[in-house]
Amino acid sequence: MIQSQRPYKLRGEICIGFASIFSFAAVMLLIFVHVGQTSTSSVPRGIAMAEVNVSQYGQALARGLGDPITGLYATNASAPLESEAGIRQVYKFGLYSYCGYLNNSAGTCTNKTLGNKYLPSAALLADMSLNYSALTIFIINGTSSFESQSIGSHTRSASYLILIGTICAFLALVMWTLYPFPILSVANNPSLSGVFKRTLAFLASACLAILATVFVVTGASLWTSAINTSESVNGLILNTTNIPLGIEVSSGPGLSLLWGAVGCLLVALIPYLISCCTFRG
């Protein structure tokens, strides 16, 4: 009897081991995604879902208008955002807030908000004085999807989905460790009870892994779509000129980490399902 059960036990242990490794990797990647742009310290500063570089915007306006541009950019890195204190060189957007930087390290962030919207156009306009914001609206309005409000709604929903998916991924990682505790007793048969305890624990892990995968991949898709939509501003030129507008949108490392987490969850899903269906050790 022991020899007949040993292959199943070995297979179950190997499967759950592989699943745990990839689930742990997914959870760690998701944690990094969550901390992105929550502050200007070294790790959060380097992780962003999207980046908007406006360092050339002032130069483009000066060339297009033929007049010097003054007061467009902020000179104080600690000046609060959304207060018409001047735009920053680069804006980086995370799940819960965004930050504006005068250089690679000097910057400030907005307050952290659950379900924060990705609205790059609104972020820029909120930092401009009235004359520059009116000019920018005149240039951009109707020429691209950069100012679209729908991308804000999509990314807000995506952030909630990613949070729920992260919780499910963590629970899937730890759920299988609960099987030694009494879950079900069948006809006072300890051996049969142990089978059901293990199977139910692995089934719960598999279900949570499925939910985590669905939520995270949906959130990643929504963020990717929103960033691609806002990138329509990259090809704009000033009216009747061939001068590039100088606003460049790109995806950040956070989006790559998010899709990496999706890959880890998909790989972990297979051994989770095998374990819940075949483990009998």
Automatic annotation (TrEMBL):
Membrane-crossing segments per the record: 12-35, 158-179, 200-223, 257-279
Keywords: Membrane, Transmembrane, Transmembrane helix
CC annotations in GO: cell cortex of cell tip; plasma membrane
GO biological process: fungal-type cell wall organization
The keyword Glycoprotein is annotated on this UniProt entry: no
PANTHER family: CELL MEMBRANE PROTEIN YLR413W-RELATED
Name listed for the protein in its UniProt record: Actin cortical patch SUR7/pH-response regulator PalI
Species: Russula ochroleuca
